[in-house]
Design goal:
Elements lengths: L2 E6 L4 H12 L6 E8 L2 E7 L3 H8 L8 E7 L14 E2 L5 E9 L2 H10 L9 H16 L3 H11 L2 E9 L4 E7 L4 E4 L6 E4 L11 E4 L4 E5 L6 E4 L10 E2 L15 H7 L1 H9 L3 E2 L4 E2 L2 H5 L1 H5 L3 E6 L1 H17 L4 E5 H4 L10 E7 L5 H12 L3 E6 L5 H5 L2 E4 L12 H20 L5 H22 L2 H11 L4 E6 L3 H16 L2 E6 L16 E6 L5 H13 L3 E7 L4 H5 L2 E5 L7 H19 L18
Parallel strand pairs: 17-18, 17-19, 19-20, 20-21, 22-23, 22-24, 24-25, 25-26
Antiparallel strand pairs: 1-4, 1-10, 2-3, 2-4, 5-6, 6-7, 7-8, 8-12, 9-10, 9-11, 11-14, 12-13, 15-16
Length: 614
């Protein structure tokens, strides 16, 4: 969700700011804007639309200046129009702000400001925030850094902000619940403040990972000034980061999503590489090993996640209860903090997020920490907020995922959860050495089996063409394939805008069967050996009501192929690994349906890659 960047130094700010917005483009946004300072005056450019149009519009007359801010916005408060686009300038015209997050109490602050004579040009909470900072500074006669401290102590919500003071030629930055990093140029002559390290490549390898509730003042050639919200002076910690040299390119693929579907064999290998050995029969996730005793004695494991990561959590529940015999509950992170969950120091709390910056999941972690649960984080982004908040955890190593609809990040999460379940089962003595070796050997075969499925791409594309004009879809699965039915439905909704629902296959007769007619495509995941006959019965119920069945079956299946309208044969595997294979044809199906419908696959409407507001 949205990206913010600020620059101050000796170079022209505009090209650096635009480079940053290019790096953020995959996050999802609806407007963009840039402000620079030239001859002590703001040059403000804002646009409701895509970055390419903004750049074209400003190509002949680029804003000048060696200091500036830029923002790509995903609408929260106020429509996606030019007035609500960032940056926002304070009422006096001295300060500008870019803001990522939400100020929950903005309405009450705005009322006070209006009574004090402030006027507003937008409907955003961000304009309220910059004026609240200015209001405090004018009333208290304190420095801007101190005024930001006071303002943020009065703000309810999550934020990353960069404030530009055109009179001081300085930037101020602070964060809470959303990542912000500072790239430091040679001898502190320039600074780039940004949502993540992606815009820093080619400019600097020196970075400060900002801590929550710290307020930085940054000016060229001056020592970095750092205070926390309690007004305590701190020393910044400057680290080296490894620059990602590879360009973000689609290669021969039409979309990033398709490219990332095809990258799954590598992502799966990267996620288990060095963490297991089929020959020697061991699994070693660092965080699990470190807290072995705590996990062995865990009364319960609680998963909290959102969206696709929530579906991965459901797979994790199935695997851990099946293999390790530990009770697992799966929570929507967005609901967890708004009730009184029963969780304590005997529980393990597992937070899953691709970005590591999901606001709802971060809020759930804070509550679980307060209840003294052990926090285990699973995410794909090194140095993210969730990775720092966790006592222990595992990175998925999926690589950068550009497409908003998650694919390889999901399968990588499932790999980590599979290893977690197997390691806990091994600790508890639930698996013999022979069993463990056999299971791990099969896990090593999963990448090549995914490659086999990818060879069916053309076949899936033909099926997609048949159903791309459907208005509704049902997805059915049993056991560990039920979360995959949910994930398949979500993928289709996200990128094609077709209404779709996922259900446990046995639940169809408890209501959803009323929806089935000749216009209702039903995708059935039918790879479960343990419930095969029941799945056959479910398909017969659908066909008796003229429903159209697309079945995902094991290679060599003959029974279901006879009764389904379409069958996609995938390699056979152990039932506990079925999710890693059965999800792939559903990703391809969603992708091709969306393409046939002419949808923007990589940037679907109203969605963003990293949801950093609650």
């Amino acid at each position: 969700m949205s990206g913010i960047i600020g620059y101050v130094g000796k170079k022209e700010a505009y090209p650096i700011l635009i480079h940053g917005l290019n790096c953020f483009e995959f996050r999802g946004y609806d407007s963009v804007g840039v402000v620079t300072v030239d001859k002590n005056e703001f040059e403000l450019r804002k646009f409701a639309g895509k970055l390419a149009e903004f750049k074209e519009k400003n190509e002949a007359n680029q804003p000048k200046g060696n200091i500036g801010l830029a923002h790509s916005r995903w609408a929260t408060h106020g429509m996606a129009d030019e007035n609500n686009a960032h940056p926002h300038v304070s009422y006096s015209g001295r300060l500008a702000i870019v803001h990522k997050g939400i100020v929950e109490n903005y309405s009450s602050l705005k009322e006070k400001l209006i009574k004090d004579g402030f006027e507003f040009k937008s409907d955003t909470d961000s304009e309220v925030l910059i004026n609240w900072i200015e209001h405090i500074q004018s009333k208290s006669q304190k420095s801007l850094q101190e005024s930001i401290q006071i303002a943020l102590n009065q703000v309810v919500g999550a934020y990353s902000i960069i404030v530009l003071d055109k009179e001081e030629n300085a930037l101020y930055a602070a964060r809470k619940g959303a990542q912000l990093v500072i790239g430091v140029g040679a001898e502190e002559e320039e600074f780039i403040i940004t949502t993540d390290t992606s815009p820093l490549g080619g400019y600097t390898s020196q970075v400060i990972y900002m801590e929550e509730e710290d307020v930085y003042r940054l000016a060229p050639g001056e020592k970095i000034n750092l205070l926390n919200l309690d007004n305590l002076q701190k020393s910044p910690v400057i680290e080296e980061f490894e620059e990602e040299l590879h360009a973000i390119e689609k290669g021969d693929f039409d979309h990033f999503m398709l490219k990332e579907i095809y990258e799954q064999p590598k992502a799966i290998i990267d996620s288990y590489r060095g963490r297991m050995s089929a020959v020697e029969g061991w699994i070693k996730l660092g965080g699990i090993t470190e807290y072995r005793n705590k996990l062995n004695k865990a009364k319960r494991i609680v998963f909290a996640a959102c969206g696709t990561s929530w579906h991965a959590s459901l797979v994790g529940k199935y695997l851990i209860e099946e293999l390790a015999g530990i009770q697992v509950s799966v929570e929507y992170a967005s609901e967890f903090r708004y009730r009184k969950p029963v969780i304590g120091n005997e529980d393990v709390f597992v937070a899953i997020s691709q970005s590591g910056e999901t606001a709802d999941t971060i809020a759930a972690i804070e509550l679980a920490k307060h209840k003294q649960a052990l926090i285990y984080g699973i995410c794909n982004s090194v140095g993210s907020t969730i990775s720092k908040m966790s006592h222990a955890g595992s990175y998925t190593h999926a690589g950068q995922e550009i497409g908003i609809a998650s694919t390889k990040a999901f399968t990588s999460q499932v790999v980590i959860l599979t290893l977690m379940a197997l390691q806990l089962a091994d600790y508890k003595g639930n698996l013999s050495k022979t069993q463990l070796n056999s299971i791990l050997y099969e896990l090593e075969q999963i990448p090549s089996k995914v490659e086999e499925i990818l060879k069916l791409d053309a076949e899936v594309k033909k099926i997609a063409k048949v159903y791309h004009q459907a208005n509704n879809f049902l997805f059915l699965g049993r056991g560990a394939n039920y979360p995959i039915a949910l994930e398949g439905a979500l993928k289709l909704k996200e990128i094609s805008y077709i209404h779709a629902e996922g259900y446990p296959a046995a639940e169809i007769k408890h209501g959803p069967i009323a929806l089935i007619d000749e216009n209702m495509p039903v995708v059935v995941l039918a790879t479960n050996d343990s419930a095969y006959d029941k799945i056959v019965s479910n398909i017969q119920e659908i066909k008796a009501r003229k429903g159209k069945v697309i079945a995902i079956v094991n290679k060599g299946d003959t029974v279901i192929k006879e009764i389904a309208d379409h069958s996609i044969e995938i390699p056979k595997t152990l039932e506990l690994f079925a999710p890693l294979l059965s999800v792939v044809p559903l990703q391809l199906l969603a992708y091709h349906i969306a393409v046939w419908r002419g949808a923007d696959v990589d940037s679907p409407r109203n969605l963003t890659k990293s949801v950093t507001v609650e």
